[in-house]
Design brief:
A six-stranded parallel beta sheet has the order 2-1-3-4-8-7, with helices on both faces. It has a two-stranded antiparallel ribbon with strand order 5-6. About 40% of the residues lie in helices and about 20% in strands. Helix 1 crosses helix 2 and helix 1 packs across helix 7. The protein is built from eight helices and eight strands. Strand 5 and strand 6 form a beta hairpin. It has one domain: 3-Layer(aba) Sandwich (Rossmann fold), CATH 3.40.50. It is α/β, with parallel strands linked by helices and about 190 residues long. The termini are far apart.
Amino acid sequence: MMNRLEVLQILKKHITDQIVISSYSTASEWIEINDRPLNYFSHGAMGLGSSHGLGMALALPERRVVVLDGDGSLLMNLPTLVSIGRAAPKNFTHIVFRNGTYEANGGHPIPNPKTDFEAMAKAAAISKACTISTTQDFENKLQWLLNDEGPLFACLDIEQGPLGPRDYKEMYRPERRKALRVAVGADPA
């Protein structure tokens, strides 16, 4: 199993002009590792990061959208896989961190930690799907995940992260949304 912080550090080295969408546990770590205008934090919307990512990918087809999701979050909104498979945005990458828990809600176990998310993605017509269990494999597949024609899906086996209280206020400031709109050309600077 991988450590999510290590995976995010590796990802940071390869992120350039992509929009990165994250929520809850991953968001609080991503903002510490790579605070930038092209981050979008899914506020109060457990499970909707993938839906927000799909909308952005369709609205901004010239820019890669990378969703950093959790297995618990994805289970809250499984139908989004079918919508992603149907819309088939070429600029969409969905990375799911699987630790078998609803980490942001106290680490309670998901109903079935043996759930095969790769198979679910493929069944939803997302044919470019994989499961990754080592940081070396993640590094080997990262260029593919960030550059190949999507939609792309990767389920990463990770350890459970810290369950302590998290401060989400900083990531949900209105100035962050404004900076994102400016960065993608939706608002003047």
